[in-house]
Amino acid sequence: MARRKNVLLIVVDQWRADFVPVLGAKFLRTPNLDRLCREGVTFRNHVTNAVPCGPARASLLTGLYLMNHRAVQNTVPLDARHMNLGKALRGIGYDPALIGYTTSTPDPRSTTSEDFRFTLLGDLMEGFRSVGAFEPSMDGYFGWLAQKGYPLPANREDIWLPEGEDAAPGATDRPCRIPAALSDTAYFTERALTYLKGKGDRPWFLHLGYWRPHPPFIAPAPYNRMYAPAEMPAIRRRSDWREEAAQHPLLGFYLSGIGQGSFFQGAGGAAAELSEAAIRQMRATYAGLITEVDDALGAVFAHLDETGQWDDTMIVFTSDHGEQLGDHFLLGKVGYHDESFRVPLVVKDPLAPQGAGRIEDAFTESVDVLPTILEWLGGQPPRACDGHSLLPLLRGERPAGWRDHLFYEYDFRDVYYSRPEAALGLPMDACSLCVVQDARWKYVHFTALPPLLFDLERDPHQMTDLAGNPGHCDVVARYARKALSHRMLHAERTLTHFRAMPGGLERRGEV
Fold first, then answer.
1. C-alpha distances out from residue 330 to 175, 211, 263, Å
2. Catalytic: 53?
3. What pTM did the predictor assign?
4. For residue 510, is pLDDT > 60?
5. Which of 53, 176, 385, 431 is labelled catalytic?
6. Is the separation of the CB atoms in 290 and 19 below 8 Å?
């Protein structure tokens, strides 16, 4: 009898890579993630291929670069013709269950302009079946709270204000008004256990999404005071935000425009004005939200243990994107800095126990997740997929020709909550950048703004741009060629392996 194969894809939100204990964050208490790292492979050099949420999840779940799927910003539609993980799983007999969200806007050609989904930041990607809705507008979660008997305030989001009538919105060690037992993390976990307990002995796939450690940066008790601000990692920034802004016009736009209100319920003021003490407190709260998610994962893992499914289940743990957390005076996921793009990836393959506990240094990207899962389940990644299966790396084998650099992109066109086009004097389709990065150099190419170049050996936190330095013209030219060649190699290729011949249609082999 064939061995049952299950897949648990855990997608947390806004969890940056340097907040993983085995990668250096020794102050964090995450026993369940630690277990996953001991029994799986942790990828040290892993990036999301795009930010923010919608583009990041489009790349993760289609296996396509931003340049190909073109859901370039939150609220921009995802072309319905693209294959995604949900559709591909259905094609091999799996039910693609999803808890959480994908922040996907539908193809307007597949519906009408009156479709309510066009009033949202993003809805569910077609192809998946929701078994624990968060979209639209968190209605699933707030309805669950009401069903549990919790009296919702008139403004539902005020559950994330600090406890106490004298509390001021902002970075705080006070708990939020919602208790941990009723947090959004608890909601997702209950949905997951409900789904898994209903599956019985049938093979399953579950995308288990968690909203945290996404803002608002406030944690329920006891996670609000679990970490001391003094033990948080050092802040990476210059002495004044204006010095940072001088590095590039795009950075100047964000440093002048990002407010605290998107990160702390009810707060005002500019993000660049946060003091070191406030940032350290914010990071302590962020760490507390991480441990809350880890505790929730413990309940899910315990169920897999108790039912004998742990050894039948591939577990993939990753995040959609990172978080600046005050580095470079920024909050959120914007621009070109590593803090926004480097994310965790841990994969436990029960069929490759020889990889247990290993840290893999190969360059990996979020587009690699889809082909890895499909190949493990016996499926075939789409021809257009930009990623590569990680199964050889899980077995300790580095395939010949594995990528020698990382590639990621960001599109900064206007959306309703951010409008850089007029400020930067750019047309909509010129608001884009791509990054080519290896162990030594990081090159940032803009469509219509000056490029950037960083020497990562001497300047790992990317404070000094060398692109305009005459002594580095050859490096700029070399990495610009890399960027162009990378884009040309990965141009859309769904049908490019077919050709008409005198004897009929020919399908050419993979390169």
1. 24, 20, 11
2. yes
3. 0.97
4. no
5. 53
6. yes
